Amino acid sequence: MELTERTHVATATKPIATKPTAAAPGAPTRATGTKDADGMAVASFILGLLGLLVLNVFLGPIAIALASVALWRGTARRGRAFLGLGLGIADLLVLVAFMQFDSTVSWNF
After folding, report:
1. What's the confidence (pLDDT) of residue 84?
2. Highest-confidence range of 15-19, 31-35, 62-66, 97-101, by mean pLDDT?
3. Cα–Cα dist 59/21, whole Å
């Protein structure tokens, strides 16, 4: 019985470990924000390339918006984001060129 009392007293005097305070629920951490920005840079590049072939009226502005947000958030893939931005602008220029050539709002081959 004496052994259990000592154990009980020893555990009562130990400091209680506290959890570190967390950020607000749903708030992105720095690592998550950087990964998201990197993903947006890659997505803008892919959508910009795809927009040169199809649906450039939709994919061009989306590529421009994603690249802009990725650059604003400080992506590690700045080159890819700038390429996505350039390709998004090129998508819209291709659309305007084909619209002038066909005299329509859309273009086809």
Report:
1. 94
2. 62-66
3. 41
Which of 28, 53, 23, 43 lies closest to 84, judged by CA?
43
Amino acid 32 reads T
Q: What six digits make up the tokens of 67?
A: 């690249």
Contacts 24+ apart (CB under 8 A), 20-23: none
DSSP string, 17-81: P-PPPPPPTTPPPHHHHHHHHHHHHHHHHHHHHHHTTS-HHHHHHHHHHHHHHHHHTT-S-HHHH
Structure-token match 């590529």, residue found? 63
Place of tokens 């450039």: 56
